[in-house]
Automatic annotation (TrEMBL), chain A:
It comes from Nothobranchius furzeri. The gene is CENPO. Belongs to the CENP-O/MCM21 family. InterPro entries: CENP-O. Pfam families: CENP-O. This is Centromere protein O. Residues 34-61 form a coiled coil. GO terms for cellular component: Mis6-Sim4 complex; nucleus. The keyword Amino-acid biosynthesis does not apply. CDD domains: DRWD-C_CENP-O, DRWD-N_CENP-O.
Automatic annotation (TrEMBL), chain B:
Residues 23-114 form a coiled coil. The lineage of its organism: Eukaryota, Metazoa, Chordata, Craniata, Vertebrata. This is Centromere protein P. It comes from Nothobranchius furzeri. InterPro entries: CENP-P. Keywords: Coiled coil, Signal. One of its GO terms (cellular component) is nucleus. GO terms for biological process: CENP-A containing chromatin assembly. Residues 1-19 form the signal peptide.
Length: 285, 321
């Protein structure tokens, strides 16, 4: 009624009249429309009040969160009221949720206890240069001995050897660190190969293996000299090759400084970047 | 004709003092209804605009500061704050929220325990949310053993599974910033967030190993070993209790390669007076080189122990094995 009253006596009178009439005669189509609109007004008012309250809650939560360090700001809040308690809980909840999210984002091992604490589930995140890639999971029994029961780690990753090398019974962290290093190195090599295929269409991949630990490429040097390039990734915990071999029919070329520079680039940089650098130098077409 | 009449009355009604119930009643009522409808419609328009404005404000709020995620108990708590919960429902909301907060606390504790990295603050801000793409700004700080870190980056998420880190910025409060500098600039250049944290963890583990080793030597050879910078520093001082002029320093430091490998660097620096060197020059002068070759074959702990035993620093009373 708030809105109607603000429009003066006239509306009020007409409203009374309408009411009086509706008691006697049949409601007219316009009257039902009035009812409809009134309901809509009420609904909108409720919505508005809700949004206002929501906005207010947001602002208070913001203040609570930002004053995590500086607690003096909280003083003007009513200490005892139920709503301020809920607000505090909400702020803590959102803070903890964000912290957990941060843990995940920075690649922390995510641990979940299973079977009433008898075992644990661990996730290992992998990524390459800012792109998040596969997440791998391990389930471990901790009672009576630490033992890997299930996992989705690719079979070509030497899981058992890694588990033997780092003593699972004393420190699970060392094992997870090495495993994570191997997994990240693997997805890193795989991602490099993918990027190289995307960025260097003229380079032909002659051979590669599933572990991406060996790569044979064919590219063309100026004057149409075809070069065979063998990249060997012997250290499986690294993304970069341990050995680079270039091969071509023109023997003079193998002694050129350009050639040596290419070799060192391929050893120092990820393959797609090394090729970009070589292209810039004019070593590769 | 009817329309003209309506208009006329409309005008009449709007002029105060000219209002007379002179028209036919039916007509009058319809007229007043129209009037009311107009008022109501105007009100609705006004409210709709207000609601829209509030929606926008809420969105802006998300972008200006922290982005909140209202799901599950948080959604119910928000409803509570908006006065939509009544009676016993209130208690349920609070206890559910409390329970989940406790659960989250336990989860965080477990992650810190396993990871050794403690994130103490994380603020998120939504920068862009259009269609399937969402860009959020993250500011995360915490510590890993004694090393304080702060990272800031943009996370772009296209649908569920394509997540990319951009514009990574890393601040590391390390006592030895030199060993990290080239690694850090490479990490920032390539947005290699995960590598940074893997390396940070390895680095702090190696530092912990060093601390343990230093403490071990100090306990085993208390009269010879002293740690001028404390057990967390990189220097260990070896000296004979009665020959104060003759000192060996062991510098145990690390270098981080651009690939993130933590490389151990141990050096032995003898400090022997000139006169003494005349008698002693051969073994002591070449100590630094001999030390490196021992290091390669024996490893750090055994090498340091053999230095302590070998160069006659031990007074006779010390245990020999």
């Amino acid at each position: 009624m708030e809105g109607a009253s603000s429009n003066g006596v006239l509306s009020k009178l007409s409203l009374l009249e309408v009411e009086a009439r509706s008691r006697g005669s049949h409601p007219q189509p316009q009257q039902s429309r009035v009812k409809e609109l009134k309901a809509k007004v009420e609904a909108l008012k409720t919505k508005r009040d809700q949004l206002k309250a929501e906005l207010q809650t947001h602002k208070l939560l913001q203040r609570l969160r930002l004053s995590e360090v500086n607690h003096s700001e909280e003083e003007d809040m009513d200490e005892d009221s139920e709503s301020s308690r809920v607000l505090r809980l909400m702020a803590r909840h959102s803070e903890l949720t964000d912290l957990l999210r941060a843990h995940r984002l920075i690649g922390g091992y995510e641990v979940v206890k299973t079977h009433q604490g008898k075992g644990v589930c661990m996730s290992i995140a992998t990524g390459y240069e800012g792109v998040y890639l596969d997440t791998y999971n391990l389930e471990m029994d901790t009672n009576p001995k630490v033992r890997i029961s299930r996992h989705n780690i690719p079979p070509f990753i030497p899981l058992d050897t890694l588990a033997e090398q780092s003593d699972l019974q004393t420190g699970i962290r060392t094992f997870l660190d090495t495993l994570s290093q191997h997994l990240n190195a693997y997805v890193g090599r795989r991602q490099q190969l993918k990027l190289m295929k995307e960025q260097h269409k003229s380079v032909e991949v002659m051979e590669s293996n599933i572990l991406c630990s060996m790569l044979v490429l064919m590219f063309t040097m100026p004057e149409q000299v075809a070069v065979l390039c063998l990249l060997d990734y012997k250290d499986l915990s690294r993304c970069l090759p341990t050995q680079v071999k270039l091969d071509c029919e023109d023997e003079k070329l193998t002694d050129s400084p350009q050639w040596k520079k290419s070799c060192s680039l391929l050893l120092e940089l990820p393959v797609h970047r090394a090729l970009t650098a070589m292209k810039k130098m004019g070593t590769v077409v | 004709m009817k329309r003209g009449m309506k208009l006329l009355v409309g005008v009449l009604v709007r002029i105060p003092g000219l209002m007379f119930p002179c028209e036919e009643e039916e007509e009058m009522m319809r007229e007043e209804n129209t009037e009311e409808l107009e008022v109501l419609e105007a009100q609705i328009k006004h409210l709709q605009a207000e609601v829209k404005g509030l929606h926008q404000q809420l969105q802006e709020e998300d972008c200006r500061n922290i982005t909140f995620n209202f799901e599950g108990p948080m959604k119910e708590a928000l409803a509570f704050m908006c006065g939509l919960t009544e009676g016993e429902g209130k208690e349920v909301v609070v206890s559910k929220l409390e329970e989940e907060v406790e659960q989250l606390e336990r989860k965080i504790k477990l992650q810190i325990q396993i990871n050794g990295i403690s994130v103490t603050r994380c603020i998120t801000k939504t920068l862009d949310h259009s269609g399937r793409k969402e860009v959020q700004l993250f500011c995360i700080s915490g510590h890993c053993s004694g090393l304080d870190f702060q990272v800031e980056f943009k996370l772009s998420e296209v649908q569920e599974h394509q997540r990319t880190v951009n514009e990574l910025n890393v601040v590391l409060d390390s006592k030895d910033p030199q060993s990290f500098s080239s690694f850090l600039s490479r990490v920032e250049e390539n947005n290699n967030l995960l590598l940074f944290f893997r390396t940070l963890r390895t680095f702090s583990d190696r530092c912990a190993d060093r601390t343990r080793a230093f403490q071990h030597f100090q306990e085993k050879f208390p009269s010879v070993v002293s740690l001028p910078g404390g057990c967390r520093s990189e220097v260990m001082r070896l000296s004979h209790p009665e020959l104060s002029g003759c000192v060996f320093f062991v510098y145990w430091s690390f270098e981080v390669s651009t690939e993130g490998a933590v490389i151990l660097k141990i050096r032995l620096l003898p400090k022997i007076p000139e006169q003494a060197l005349q008698f002693y020059s051969q073994p002591a002068g070449g100590a630094a080189e001999a030390f490196q070759s021992l290091l390669r074959t024996l490893g750090p702990e055994a090498t340091i122990e053999s230095v302590i035993r070998g160069v006659g620093l031990l007074p006779d009373a010390e245990p020999s094995s």
